[in-house]
Design a protein that fits this description.
The chain is an alpha+beta fold and 207 residues long. The chain has one domain (7-21, 47-205): START domain (Alpha-D-Glucose-1,6-Bisphosphate, Chain A, domain 4, 2-Layer Sandwich). The chain has four helices and twelve strands, in the order αβββααβββββββββα. The strands form two sheets. Strands 1, 2, 3, 4, 5, 6, 7, 8, 10 and 11 form a ten-stranded mixed beta sheet that branches. The protein has a two-stranded antiparallel ribbon with strand order 9-12. The longest helix has 24 residues, at 183-206. The protein is globular, with a radius of gyration of 16 Å. The relative contact order is 0.23. It comes from Grantiella picta. InterPro entries: StarD4, START-like_dom_sf, START_lipid-bd_dom. GO terms for molecular function: cholesterol binding; cholesterol transfer activity. Residues 10-207 form the START domain. This is STAR4 protein.
Length: 207
């Protein structure tokens, strides 16, 4: 188990990594799933043997409120059906923390419940916000959970120029679920989970 890292250089490196993902050309992505709420693409990850996923969709709300529903805080547990618990373990400053959260089993429990410990950072990006995270090897793994690992992940949320009450939400996710899992099951689950994330978020913002 590692000690907690110095938050400032980690936050800076994480932001730079996400901005680099955000500049990857369209030709490198392959469509994995398309719904009325979002499109999900994927490409091989540079971090591990799985995929880096990109999800994008327009969400009807202002940037700050959308990001408040995504980043660590009281809203996320209310609407994200995959997340079953969340504890903020350390707070460095208002926009920077370490959280532990658990996820429900998926695909008829082929994918058992997972636990993650993530460093989370929210910062400004262009006219909007970026909230991003990366897993840490920190704290004991609780019984009955497999410890998963999020390689650099994040959500860019920027207001639409011609429609300020709407925002373009773009996510980059690369999760190593670990444990004995067929990769095809993981890939199916990831695409569906990301598409559902948008429909669930939209419902939550309307309430």
């Amino acid at each position: 188990m590692d000690p907690l890292p110095d938050p400032a250089p980690l936050a800076s490196k994480l932001r730079n990594t996400l901005v680099r993902y955000h500049s990857i050309g369209d030709g490198e992505w392959r469509v994995a799933k398309k719904t009325k709420d979002a499109t999900v693409w994927r490409k091989p990850s540079e971090e591990f043997s799985g995929y880096l996923y990109k999800a994008q969709g327009v969400v009807e709300d202002v940037t700050n409120r959308i990001v408040d529903h995504i980043r660590p805080g009281p809203y996320r547990l209310d609407w994200d059906s995959l997340m079953t618990s969340m504890d903020i373990m350390e707070t460095f400053e208002e926009n920077c923390c370490v959280m532990r959260y658990t996820t429900a089993g998926q695909l008829w429990n082929i994918i058992a419940p997972r636990e993650f410990v993530d460093f989370s950072y929210t910062t400004s990006y262009e006219d909007g916000l970026l909230t991003c995270g990366i897993s840490l090897d920190y704290a004991e793994v609780r019984p009955n959970f497999v410890r998963g690992f999020n390689h650099p992940c994040g959500w860019f949320c920027v207001p639409l120029k011609d429609s300020p009450g709407h925002s373009l939400l773009t996510g980059y996710i690369q999760t190593e679920l670990r444990g004995m899992l067929p990769q095809s099951a993981v890939d199916t689950a990831m695409s569906s989970t990301l598409a559902n994330f948008y429909s669930d978020l939209k419902k939550a913002l309307k309430t």
